[in-house]
Amino acid sequence: MPRILRLGLGLVVLLVVVAVFLGPYAWIAASSFKPQDEIFRDLEPLSWRTFWPTSPTIENVVHLFENRRMGRALLNSAIVSTCQVILTLVLCSTAAYGLTRIRFRGANLVFALVLMTFLLPLESLVVPLYMTVSGLSLQDTLIGAFIPWIASPFGMFLLRQYFEELPRELDEAARLDGAGHFRIFWSIVLPNVRVPMVTLALVTFLFSWNAFLWPLVILSSPGNTVVQIAIAQSVAPGQLPNWGETFAGATVATVPLILLFLFLQRFFVRGVALSGVKG
Amino acid sequence: MTRTARKVAHWATILAFVGPFLGFLLVFQYWPLVQMVNDSLYDFSLLNPARRTFVGIENYTWAFTDPDRIQAFQVTFGLAIGTICLILPVSFLLAVYLNGKLPARGIIRTIVFLPVITSAVVIATMWTFLLDANNGLLNSALTALGLPRGLFLTDKVQALPSVIMMTLWQQTGFATVLFLSGLQGIPQELEDAAHVDGATAWQRLRFITVPLLIRTTVFVVVIMTAFALQAFAPALIMTGGGPEGMTNFVAYDIYKLAFILEAPGLASAVSVIFTLIVLAISLLQMRLLRARWNY
Question: Shortest CA distance to B219 belongs to which of B164, B117, B293, B123?
Answer without folding.
Answer: B293
